[in-house]
Structure formats: C-alpha cells, structure tokens
Amino acid sequence: MIRFKSCAALAACSALAACAALSPTSEPVQRAPAFDLVGRVAVRYDGRAFSSSVRWLHGAENDEISLLTPVGQTLAHILADSSGATLTGADRSETRAGDVESLTRRGLGWELPLTRLAWWVRAEIVPGVVIGEVTRDQDGRLVRLVQDGWNIVFVHRPPEEGSRFPQRLDLARENYQIRLVIDNWLGGDAP
Question: Please, are residues 145 and 125 in contact by the beta-carbon 8 Å criterion?
Fold first, then answer.
C-alpha cells in the first residue's frame, strides 16, 4: 500500500491519474465489423454547410465512401486502408493523406471521424478509446455517447421494427456538426 505524506501529494497523484485516464488513444485497437449502408449526410462547419447522399462500404481492411448529389453524380469518392486515404473529387483531382480524418479536413474542409464512426453507426462504443459518458434507453440501446471528444446522439427506429442499429446519428465536436441518416443497410452484419 502506498502512503502519502501530504494531502498535496495525494491530490497531485489523483490529478495525474485522472488526466491519464481521460487522454484518448490515437487509434482504436480493432476495426468494426463489415457493413454496407446508404444514407444522407449534412455537415455544418466554420459557418458553412454541406449535404449529400452517401454510400459507405466498410470492409475488413478498407473503406469506400461515395458522396453523391441528389441525382447520383459523385461529388467525392474516398478510399481508405492501412496505407492511407485518397479523395477523388468530381473534377477527378486527387488528395491523399495518412488517414480519412486528415484527408477530409484538407479535401472537404470538415472532419469525417470515419474510424470511430464505423462503430458508432452500429450504436457501439469504440473499443480501446476513453468514454466520457454513456446513456441508454429502456431497451438498452445507446442514445447518447461522449467519446474521443465527440458528442453523439443516436435516434433509433421504434423497438417493434426490430432494428438494433440507429436510424440517425447527430455528432458534434468543436465547430463541427454532422448528421448521418441511415436509409438502408445493404449487407454485412445488418439487421
């Protein structure tokens, strides 16, 4: 057993331990299970707004995301794997980065927290990343989560529809607000 000679030493150690417990890790320890979804995304950032349809194929080793106009034209196509990420714009210009978060900040002006979002769209907590707050409904479904600096609100379909995945996610962090509406799960571990 450790004994402290003063309250100040105890307080300092407690503060350091609390800081260590709250510091987020840089990357989750594992990838979320595969899925394929279609939906819509709306983003507010730095006084601007962006919205599009989205098709997201999340595989065991990579992600492919298409951001589309209402008539199906590609605004941006994102490919990401362990070697990095590439964004191809509507004009066929390419932007590359080490990860999707950096890529979307540079290429789109807003951050898409893809690595963590792959867990959150399934209403799951990212393993290995510090949790700030968790709220569940009476059916045990995640309705609010604070994790890695993001505040996420989950909107679920009625329980009688039998879906365990959310219908909508509202994410907020600093000057970013992202709403993702999931219209359809096309494969993988979908309901």
Answer: yes
Give the E-state strand segments of the chain in sequence order: 35-45, 48-58, 62-68, 74-81, 84-89, 94-97, 131-136, 142-147, 150-155, 168-173, 176-188
Two tokens, residue 83: 């070697």
* Amino acid letter, residue 92: R
Of 76, 98, 74, 94, which is closest to residue 85 (Cα–Cα)? 98
Tokens 């983003």 belong to 43
Tokens of 124: 């799951």
Residue 123 near residue 137 (C-beta atoms within 8 A): no
Q: What is the pLDDT along the chain (191 residues), one digit of tens a residue?
A: 334 344 333 333 333 333 333 344 445 457 899 999 999 999 999 999 999 999 999 999 999 999 999 888 999 999 999 999 999 999 999 999 999 999 999 999 999 999 999 999 999 999 999 999 999 999 899 999 999 999 999 999 887 787 789 999 999 999 999 999 999 998 644 54
Q: Which residues lie closer than 8 Å to 21 by C-beta, 6 or more apart?
A: 130
How far, in Å, CA of 99 to CA of 96, rounded?
9
3-state secondary structure of 12: helix
E strand or H helix that includes residue 16: helix 7-22
